[in-house]
Design a protein that fits this description.
Blueprint lengths: L1 E3 L6 E3 L6 E3 L6 E3 L8 H13 L2 H4 L7 H28 L6 H23 L1
Antiparallel strand pairs: 1-2, 3-4
Helix pairs in contact: 1-3, 3-4
The structure holds zinc ion.
Amino acid sequence: MLSDCPGCNVQIRFPHDASIIRCPECGETFSIKGLHANPRGWRIALFGTLLTFNYYFTFPFIYSDILVFVFLSLVGTSVTLGGLMMSVNDKRRVGNGFYLLEAALAVVVAGHAYVIMSMGSIS
Ligand SMILES: [Zn+2]
């Protein structure tokens, strides 16, 4: 495992199960858990979630073709799942093994996509 020291930005190698690191260069101690857990994956996932449930806020205003909503929802689902995988990868890289929220959101959007697709096949 590698991480940058927040004090002097030197790169430190440390054992996988370490949680508190002391920088050999400047003596700064810092916690590894959640450090550098990049939020970019979550930003993408939340954008995808908005897209997935787009009809909740577009439907009252724009009465459009249902296929547009279905299409946007499926695109949103892919974007959400991609973002969640990115978040899990980023967390794994910094040794953060807490993926419960990612898993929960993945189940929600995947279940939603299933409902959308079965609705699409009925109509
Ligand atoms: Zn340092």
